[in-house]
Amino acid sequence: MSDLHEPTTDLRGRLARAPKVVLHDHLDGGLRASTLLELADEIGHELPESTPEALAAWVQRQADSGSLAAFLEPFSHTTAVLQTPHALERVARESVLDLAADGVVVMESRFAPELSTAGGLSIEEVLDAVLAGLHAGAAEAADAGRPIRVGAIVCAMRQADRSLEAARAALSRRDAGVVGFDIAGLEIGFPATDHADAFALLRENLLPFTVHAGEAVGPESVAQALAVGASRLGHGVRVLEDVTVGGDDASARPHLGRVASYVRDRQVPLEVCPRSNTQTGTSPSIAGHQVTALRDLGFTITLSSDDRLWTGTTLTDEMVLLAEEAGWGWDDFRQVTLDALDAAFIGQDERMALLEHVVLPGWAD
C-alpha cells in the first residue's frame, strides 16, 4: 500500500487527471439519465421519473435497496429504449465520451446484443450499431484532445440459450472492434459450463473471454469459469471464501485453497467493481470489501465501475472511495492501472506503446 497521504481533494484531482483503464463497463447500465429520458420519450415508454436528476436518484435508490428485484427493475427501462440502431449508436458514443472525460484511455464496453433484438434487429445488426457508436465516440474524444482506445465485449445471458449465436457474431466482427466475449446475468443456477459449446468455439478461434463469476456465487462459480478457459473474472471477489486465515494464531499465514491458489498463482485478473459489489450484497461495505484483502494476498486486481447509472460513480469516484474508506493510496491505484492495461484485450505492441507514452508518464509521482 502507498505511503502517500494527502487530502482527499488533492488525491481526487490527481486521480481524475491520471490515465485509467476500464475493463468492466456495461453499456445498458451506463446510460446518461437525460438520454434515457429522451429515448423513452421517442418511443412512448413510461419512466418512473420525468427529470434527469430524479431519474438518476430513483435508479440509485433501486440499486441500494438490497432487493435483487428492485436492483434489476431499471434494466427493463434501459433495455426497452435500446431496440433501434439510432439508440444503440447514441448510447455507445456517449459512453465513450463520458469515460474519456474521466481520464480513461482504454475502455472495453460490454453488452448483450440479444437483449436488443425484441424490436426485430438481429444480433449482428445490434453489434454493428454499437460498434459504429463506439468508433464515433472515440473519434470525437480524440478530436477533443482525449484519445481513448475502445473495444467491445459481446455478452451472452447465462439464463438464455443464445451464447453460441452470440459467440459466432462476436467472431464475425472481431476485425471491426470486438475484442472479447463474456457471459452475464443470473449466476445462481446457471453455471458457465452450460455454455461450453460457445467457449469451445471461442478457444478454437483464439478470441479471449472473461466470465462473470464469484459475484453471486463463491469459489465453485470461479472454478467453473476457469474450467471453460476464462482469461479474466468479472468481479471474482468471492474467491476470497477459498482463503482460510490462521484461526487463533495471528502470525499464521493465510491458507489458499485450490481455486484461490489457481487464480493468484496464475495471476488471473479480477475485474472488481467496488460500489456495485456493495449494492448487490457481494461485499459488506467499501471498508470491508474483499478487494483490499485480495490485494494484500497478491491477487491481480483491476478496478471498474460496472453500471455507472446504478452506482452513480466514475472510476475516479471508485478510487476515491477506496482511498477514503479502505486506506488505498496513489501507488495502489497506479498498480491496478498497470495490471488492467496488461489484462486488456489488445495487442502487445499497442499495449507497450500505451504504457510508454500514456500510462507511465501519467502515473509518475
What is the total tally of β strands?
Answer: 10
Structural class: alpha/beta
- Any idea what the radius of gyration is? 20 Å
Which strands sit side by side, in order, in the main sheet?
1-2-3-4
Characterize the overall form.
globular
- Name of the CATH homologous superfamily: Metal-dependent hydrolases
Give the H and E element order: HEHHHHEHEHEHEHEEEHEHHEHHHH
Strand content: 5-15%
CATH class: Alpha Beta
In quaternary terms, these chains amount to single chain
The helix count comes to 16
Unreliable stretches covering 5 or more consecutive residues: none
Instruction: Describe the main β-sheet briefly.
Output: 4 strands, parallel
Mean pLDDT: 95
Spatial separation of the terminal alpha carbons: 15 Å
CATH architecture: Alpha-Beta Barrel
- Output the CATH topology: TIM Barrel
Helix fraction by DSSP (H/I, runs of at least 4):
40-55%
Instruction: Estimate nothing, just give the exact number of structural domains.
Output: 1
GO molecular function: adenosine deaminase activity; metal ion binding
Domain Adenosine deaminase: 19-358
Family: Belongs to the metallo-dependent hydrolases superfamily. Adenosine and AMP deaminases family.
Cofactor: Zn(2+)
